[in-house]
Amino acid sequence: MQKSQRLIQLIMMINAKKSFTVRELADEFGLSTRTITRDLQELSELGIPIYSIQGRGGGYKLLQDRMLPPISLSESEAIAMFFACQSLDYFFSLPFGEGAESALQKFYHYLPADIKEQIDRLDGRIMLWSPYRSMAPGILQTLMQAIMTGEVVTMEYNSSSGIAKRDIQPIGLYTSSGYWYCPAYCFEREDIRQFRADRILSAALNPSVPPRDEIRKMTLMNKPEKGHLDQTVLHIEITRKGVWLLESNPRFAPSIQRNEDGSGAAAIQIATEDLRFYVDLIWNLGSEVKIKGPVEAITYIQEKVEAMRSLYS
Question: Based on CB atoms within 10 Å of each CB, which residue in 26, 80, 110, 203 is the most buried?
Fold first, then answer.
Protein backbone atom coordinates (compact mmCIF):
# COMPACT_ATOMS: atom_id res chain seq x y z
CA MET A 1 0.00 0.00 0.00
CA GLN A 2 1.32 3.44 -0.93
CA LYS A 3 1.94 5.88 1.90
CA SER A 4 -0.67 8.35 0.61
CA GLN A 5 -3.32 5.62 0.57
CA ARG A 6 -2.30 4.54 4.07
CA LEU A 7 -2.63 8.08 5.41
CA ILE A 8 -6.09 8.46 3.89
CA GLN A 9 -7.21 5.17 5.47
CA LEU A 10 -5.62 6.25 8.73
CA ILE A 11 -7.64 9.49 8.71
CA MET A 12 -10.86 7.54 8.13
CA MET A 13 -10.06 5.08 10.91
CA ILE A 14 -9.18 7.62 13.61
CA ASN A 15 -12.23 9.67 12.64
CA ALA A 16 -14.38 6.62 13.38
CA LYS A 17 -12.57 5.58 16.58
CA LYS A 18 -12.14 9.00 18.26
CA SER A 19 -9.74 7.46 20.80
CA PHE A 20 -7.05 4.87 20.07
CA THR A 21 -3.56 3.63 20.85
CA VAL A 22 -0.59 3.30 18.53
CA ARG A 23 -0.59 -0.44 19.14
CA GLU A 24 -4.22 -0.75 18.02
CA LEU A 25 -3.46 1.04 14.76
CA ALA A 26 -0.25 -0.92 14.23
CA ASP A 27 -2.13 -4.21 14.59
CA GLU A 28 -4.89 -2.98 12.29
CA PHE A 29 -2.47 -2.02 9.51
CA GLY A 30 0.11 -4.76 10.15
CA LEU A 31 2.88 -2.17 10.66
CA SER A 32 5.33 -1.32 13.39
CA THR A 33 4.39 1.13 16.15
CA ARG A 34 7.31 3.29 14.99
CA THR A 35 5.81 3.67 11.51
CA ILE A 36 2.35 4.48 12.90
CA THR A 37 3.85 7.07 15.26
CA ARG A 38 5.55 8.77 12.31
CA ASP A 39 2.27 8.72 10.36
CA LEU A 40 0.38 10.30 13.25
CA GLN A 41 3.03 12.99 13.54
CA GLU A 42 2.70 13.73 9.82
CA LEU A 43 -1.11 13.92 10.05
CA SER A 44 -0.80 16.31 12.97
CA GLU A 45 1.50 18.56 10.93
CA LEU A 46 -1.10 18.52 8.12
CA GLY A 47 -3.69 19.93 10.53
CA ILE A 48 -5.50 16.78 11.71
CA PRO A 49 -6.51 17.66 15.33
CA ILE A 50 -4.89 14.71 17.14
CA TYR A 51 -3.62 15.02 20.72
CA SER A 52 -1.98 12.53 23.05
CA ILE A 53 -3.31 11.38 26.42
CA GLN A 54 -0.58 11.14 29.04
CA GLY A 55 -0.29 8.54 31.79
CA ARG A 56 -1.19 4.90 32.21
CA GLY A 57 -3.80 3.70 29.75
CA GLY A 58 -3.19 6.76 27.58
CA GLY A 59 -3.17 6.96 23.84
CA TYR A 60 -4.49 9.44 21.31
CA LYS A 61 -7.76 11.27 20.76
CA LEU A 62 -9.30 13.33 18.01
CA LEU A 63 -10.49 16.77 19.01
CA GLN A 64 -14.21 17.48 18.89
CA ASP A 65 -14.11 18.81 15.32
CA ARG A 66 -14.12 15.59 13.33
CA MET A 67 -12.37 15.24 9.99
CA LEU A 68 -14.55 14.14 7.11
CA PRO A 69 -13.43 11.26 4.88
CA PRO A 70 -12.13 12.07 1.36
CA ILE A 71 -14.75 12.69 -1.32
CA SER A 72 -14.20 12.00 -5.02
CA LEU A 73 -15.35 14.86 -7.26
CA SER A 74 -15.39 15.27 -11.03
CA GLU A 75 -13.78 18.36 -12.59
CA SER A 76 -17.12 20.10 -13.08
CA GLU A 77 -18.19 19.24 -9.51
CA ALA A 78 -14.91 20.59 -8.11
CA ILE A 79 -15.25 23.87 -10.03
CA ALA A 80 -18.91 24.22 -9.00
CA MET A 81 -18.04 23.59 -5.34
CA PHE A 82 -15.20 26.11 -5.43
CA PHE A 83 -17.32 28.94 -6.83
CA ALA A 84 -20.25 28.08 -4.55
CA CYS A 85 -17.93 28.54 -1.57
CA GLN A 86 -16.17 31.54 -3.08
CA SER A 87 -19.50 33.33 -3.51
CA LEU A 88 -19.57 33.72 0.28
CA ASP A 89 -16.61 36.10 -0.01
CA TYR A 90 -18.98 38.81 -1.18
CA PHE A 91 -20.87 38.83 2.14
CA PHE A 92 -19.36 41.16 4.72
CA SER A 93 -20.55 38.89 7.56
CA LEU A 94 -21.29 35.16 7.73
CA PRO A 95 -22.63 32.93 10.52
CA PHE A 96 -19.85 30.37 9.95
CA GLY A 97 -16.92 32.24 11.49
CA GLU A 98 -13.68 31.55 9.64
CA GLY A 99 -14.79 28.04 8.67
CA ALA A 100 -15.87 28.94 5.14
CA GLU A 101 -12.60 30.66 4.25
CA SER A 102 -10.50 27.91 5.83
CA ALA A 103 -12.43 25.19 3.99
CA LEU A 104 -12.05 27.01 0.68
CA GLN A 105 -8.28 27.33 1.15
CA LYS A 106 -7.95 23.61 1.91
CA PHE A 107 -10.16 22.71 -1.02
CA TYR A 108 -8.14 24.81 -3.45
CA HIS A 109 -4.81 23.56 -2.06
CA TYR A 110 -5.56 19.91 -2.90
CA LEU A 111 -7.01 20.49 -6.38
CA PRO A 112 -5.00 19.14 -9.34
CA ALA A 113 -2.80 21.75 -11.05
CA ASP A 114 -4.86 21.81 -14.27
CA ILE A 115 -8.13 22.50 -12.38
CA LYS A 116 -6.39 25.22 -10.35
CA GLU A 117 -5.35 26.77 -13.64
CA GLN A 118 -8.95 26.73 -14.92
CA ILE A 119 -10.21 28.33 -11.70
CA ASP A 120 -7.47 30.97 -11.80
CA ARG A 121 -8.53 31.94 -15.33
CA LEU A 122 -12.10 32.47 -14.08
CA ASP A 123 -11.00 34.59 -11.13
CA GLY A 124 -12.70 37.98 -11.33
CA ARG A 125 -14.86 36.80 -14.24
CA ILE A 126 -17.57 34.92 -12.35
CA MET A 127 -19.07 36.55 -9.27
CA LEU A 128 -22.17 35.91 -7.16
CA TRP A 129 -22.33 39.47 -5.92
CA SER A 130 -24.03 40.68 -2.75
CA PRO A 131 -24.34 44.32 -1.66
CA TYR A 132 -21.96 45.36 1.12
CA ARG A 133 -23.78 45.44 4.47
CA SER A 134 -21.91 45.98 7.71
CA MET A 135 -22.87 43.81 10.70
CA ALA A 136 -21.24 41.87 13.51
CA PRO A 137 -20.32 38.26 12.57
CA GLY A 138 -20.66 37.24 16.23
CA ILE A 139 -24.38 38.06 16.15
CA LEU A 140 -24.94 35.75 13.19
CA GLN A 141 -22.95 32.97 14.85
CA THR A 142 -25.04 33.24 18.03
CA LEU A 143 -28.28 33.08 16.02
CA MET A 144 -27.06 30.05 14.05
CA GLN A 145 -26.01 28.29 17.26
CA ALA A 146 -29.48 28.91 18.70
CA ILE A 147 -31.10 27.50 15.55
CA MET A 148 -28.97 24.33 15.76
CA THR A 149 -29.61 23.77 19.48
CA GLY A 150 -33.16 25.12 19.67
CA GLU A 151 -32.23 27.58 22.42
CA VAL A 152 -33.50 31.03 23.27
CA VAL A 153 -31.48 34.19 22.60
CA THR A 154 -31.59 37.36 24.68
CA MET A 155 -30.82 40.34 22.47
CA GLU A 156 -30.81 44.11 22.34
CA TYR A 157 -32.70 45.21 19.22
CA ASN A 158 -32.73 48.64 17.64
CA SER A 159 -36.21 49.04 16.13
CA SER A 160 -38.03 52.15 14.91
CA SER A 161 -39.41 52.61 18.44
CA GLY A 162 -35.97 52.50 20.07
CA ILE A 163 -33.59 50.00 21.67
CA ALA A 164 -35.20 47.21 23.69
CA LYS A 165 -34.16 43.89 25.19
CA ARG A 166 -36.06 40.85 23.94
CA ASP A 167 -36.01 37.09 24.32
CA ILE A 168 -36.44 35.33 20.98
CA GLN A 169 -36.35 31.75 19.72
CA PRO A 170 -34.91 31.85 16.17
CA ILE A 171 -36.55 29.80 13.44
CA GLY A 172 -33.95 30.36 10.72
CA LEU A 173 -31.59 32.74 8.94
CA TYR A 174 -31.76 33.96 5.37
CA THR A 175 -30.16 36.72 3.34
CA SER A 176 -31.75 39.16 0.91
CA SER A 177 -30.06 42.14 -0.77
CA GLY A 178 -27.05 41.63 1.45
CA TYR A 179 -29.02 41.79 4.70
CA TRP A 180 -29.45 38.83 7.05
CA TYR A 181 -32.96 38.25 8.42
CA CYS A 182 -34.01 36.08 11.36
CA PRO A 183 -37.67 35.08 11.74
CA ALA A 184 -38.15 34.19 15.41
CA TYR A 185 -40.71 33.72 18.14
CA CYS A 186 -40.71 36.83 20.35
CA PHE A 187 -41.58 35.99 23.95
CA GLU A 188 -42.58 39.60 24.65
CA ARG A 189 -45.01 39.83 21.71
CA GLU A 190 -45.97 36.15 22.03
CA ASP A 191 -45.87 35.90 18.25
CA ILE A 192 -43.59 35.31 15.25
CA ARG A 193 -41.61 38.40 14.29
CA GLN A 194 -38.89 39.08 11.75
CA PHE A 195 -35.63 40.71 12.87
CA ARG A 196 -32.84 42.20 10.77
CA ALA A 197 -29.51 40.94 12.06
CA ASP A 198 -27.66 44.24 11.56
CA ARG A 199 -30.13 45.90 13.95
CA ILE A 200 -29.28 43.43 16.74
CA LEU A 201 -26.79 45.23 19.01
CA SER A 202 -25.97 42.26 21.24
CA ALA A 203 -27.06 38.63 21.47
CA ALA A 204 -26.36 35.74 23.84
CA LEU A 205 -27.83 32.28 24.40
CA ASN A 206 -30.12 32.24 27.43
CA PRO A 207 -30.59 28.69 28.80
CA SER A 208 -32.73 30.04 31.67
CA VAL A 209 -35.65 30.65 29.28
CA PRO A 210 -37.29 27.36 28.23
CA PRO A 211 -37.74 27.09 24.43
CA ARG A 212 -41.08 26.23 22.85
CA ASP A 213 -41.24 22.80 21.22
CA GLU A 214 -43.54 23.91 18.39
CA ILE A 215 -41.06 26.64 17.38
CA ARG A 216 -38.21 24.10 17.25
CA LYS A 217 -40.17 22.17 14.61
CA MET A 218 -40.60 25.19 12.34
CA THR A 219 -38.41 25.98 9.35
CA LEU A 220 -38.23 28.92 6.94
CA MET A 221 -40.49 26.91 4.63
CA ASN A 222 -43.30 26.28 7.13
CA LYS A 223 -43.18 29.29 9.47
CA PRO A 224 -46.51 31.12 9.84
CA GLU A 225 -47.09 34.00 7.45
CA LYS A 226 -48.29 37.41 8.58
CA GLY A 227 -51.89 36.56 7.81
CA HIS A 228 -52.82 37.06 11.46
CA LEU A 229 -51.67 40.71 11.35
CA ASP A 230 -53.71 43.64 10.07
CA GLN A 231 -53.65 43.54 6.28
CA THR A 232 -53.93 46.13 3.55
CA VAL A 233 -53.69 46.09 -0.24
CA LEU A 234 -51.20 48.35 -2.02
CA HIS A 235 -52.48 49.32 -5.49
CA ILE A 236 -49.95 50.62 -8.02
CA GLU A 237 -49.81 51.53 -11.70
CA ILE A 238 -46.53 50.76 -13.45
CA THR A 239 -44.94 52.04 -16.64
CA ARG A 240 -43.34 49.68 -19.11
CA LYS A 241 -39.90 50.45 -17.68
CA GLY A 242 -41.31 50.06 -14.16
CA VAL A 243 -42.57 46.57 -15.01
CA TRP A 244 -39.10 45.72 -16.30
CA LEU A 245 -37.58 46.98 -13.04
CA LEU A 246 -40.06 45.32 -10.68
CA GLU A 247 -40.42 41.92 -12.34
CA SER A 248 -37.14 40.80 -10.74
CA ASN A 249 -38.34 41.82 -7.26
CA PRO A 250 -40.03 38.84 -5.54
CA ARG A 251 -42.13 41.18 -3.38
CA PHE A 252 -43.87 42.65 -6.44
CA ALA A 253 -43.39 40.26 -9.36
CA PRO A 254 -46.13 37.68 -8.51
CA SER A 255 -48.79 40.44 -8.38
CA ILE A 256 -47.94 42.30 -11.60
CA GLN A 257 -50.62 42.24 -14.30
CA ARG A 258 -49.22 43.25 -17.71
CA ASN A 259 -51.03 45.37 -20.26
CA GLU A 260 -50.66 44.95 -24.01
CA ASP A 261 -48.33 47.94 -24.26
CA GLY A 262 -45.95 46.49 -21.65
CA SER A 263 -47.14 48.66 -18.77
CA GLY A 264 -48.90 47.07 -15.84
CA ALA A 265 -50.61 47.24 -12.49
CA ALA A 266 -50.40 45.35 -9.24
CA ALA A 267 -52.40 44.81 -6.07
CA ILE A 268 -50.09 43.54 -3.34
CA GLN A 269 -51.53 42.27 -0.07
CA ILE A 270 -49.19 43.17 2.78
CA ALA A 271 -49.19 43.61 6.53
CA THR A 272 -50.27 47.15 7.42
CA GLU A 273 -47.12 47.60 9.50
CA ASP A 274 -45.04 47.02 6.33
CA LEU A 275 -46.80 49.70 4.24
CA ARG A 276 -44.10 52.38 4.59
CA PHE A 277 -41.40 49.83 3.79
CA TYR A 278 -43.09 49.06 0.46
CA VAL A 279 -43.66 52.74 -0.31
CA ASP A 280 -39.95 53.38 0.28
CA LEU A 281 -39.15 50.69 -2.30
CA ILE A 282 -41.50 52.33 -4.80
CA TRP A 283 -40.00 55.77 -4.07
CA ASN A 284 -36.70 54.56 -5.51
CA LEU A 285 -38.41 54.03 -8.89
CA GLY A 286 -39.55 57.64 -9.22
CA SER A 287 -42.20 58.28 -11.86
CA GLU A 288 -42.13 54.69 -13.15
CA VAL A 289 -44.65 53.64 -10.45
CA LYS A 290 -47.75 55.50 -9.24
CA ILE A 291 -49.49 54.60 -5.99
CA LYS A 292 -53.30 54.41 -6.30
CA GLY A 293 -54.08 53.37 -2.75
CA PRO A 294 -54.51 53.08 0.15
CA VAL A 295 -54.77 56.69 1.26
CA GLU A 296 -52.07 56.19 3.90
CA ALA A 297 -49.57 55.21 1.21
CA ILE A 298 -50.43 58.21 -0.95
CA THR A 299 -50.15 60.55 2.04
CA TYR A 300 -46.77 59.10 2.95
CA ILE A 301 -45.40 59.52 -0.61
CA GLN A 302 -46.71 63.11 -0.67
CA GLU A 303 -44.87 63.80 2.59
CA LYS A 304 -41.67 62.45 1.07
CA VAL A 305 -42.12 64.58 -2.06
CA GLU A 306 -42.73 67.72 0.02
CA ALA A 307 -39.69 66.99 2.20
CA MET A 308 -37.51 66.72 -0.89
CA ARG A 309 -38.99 69.92 -2.36
CA SER A 310 -38.27 71.80 0.87
CA LEU A 311 -34.75 70.43 0.99
CA TYR A 312 -33.89 71.70 -2.52
CA SER A 313 -36.00 74.88 -2.67
Answer: 203
